[in-house]
């Protein structure tokens, strides 16, 4: 998939590939396979199956060794809702000093923490990205450089517009767009997640979502109705004919 994606996307666009595994060696191997397939950088979430053993020292050694042996830059991925582990500001700050660790995708839903990381890593060439479209504007305000957001699967243009409005200093317009994004984004991420994302992609007529991989089940008719109504209300989908 990564190799085919590299073939289809423009050469001036970065290709970021997830490559995390539960062991250090497997993560290094997968990361370099992704590099061979054309990835410009890899996104690596922390091991979490044996979460009680994943203390700060263990995680520091894990990410540091992976970054040492990975042939492309590493982007840290903090997703405490899924892993049960929240990478701390001191840990992230230490890792930011590694020359091959380029940044952080933070899905911890804590803008204050993102602000701290931006502050403590200043001058290190370390980039912080919001993992939630619902927090994109506040994240930009505190110094994040952008986002890696599920909402982009259905409405990437609107997220790019929000960033452009922020850069142009049009904060009132950016705030209005951010508020419009909130409910539709919640529906396709934390509430109904992947099945809802696929359903909205299909409903728009311009993208392909397709079926879910089991055990995920498709959205119900009632859920689909709620999704379409929410996206139409905010102008993110055309009104059904």
From TrEMBL:
Organism: Cloeon dipterum
InterPro entries in the record: Aldolase_TIM, DapA-like, Schiff_base-form_aldolases_AS
Enzyme class per UniProt: lyase
Keywords associated with the record: Lyase, Schiff base
Family per similarity comment: Belongs to the DapA family.
PANTHER family referenced in this protein's UniProt entry, alphabetically: 4-HYDROXY-2-OXOGLUTARATE ALDOLASE, MITOCHONDRIAL, DIHYDRODIPICOLINATE SYNTHASE
GO biological-process terms attached to the record: small molecule metabolic process
Oligomer status and interactors: Homotetramer.
Function as written in the Swiss-Prot or TrEMBL entry: Catalyzes the final step in the metabolic pathway of hydroxyproline.
Record GO terms (molecular function): (R,S)-4-hydroxy-2-oxoglutarate aldolase activity; 4-hydroxy-tetrahydrodipicolinate synthase activity
EC numbers on record: 4.1.3.16
Domain of life: Eukaryota
Pfam families, alphabetized: DHDPS
Protein name stated in the entry: 4-hydroxy-2-oxoglutarate aldolase, mitochondrial
Gene3D superfamilies given in the database record: Aldolase class I
Lyase listed as a keyword: yes
Annotated catalysed reactions: (4S)-4-hydroxy-2-oxoglutarate = glyoxylate + pyruvate; (4R)-4-hydroxy-2-oxoglutarate = glyoxylate + pyruvate
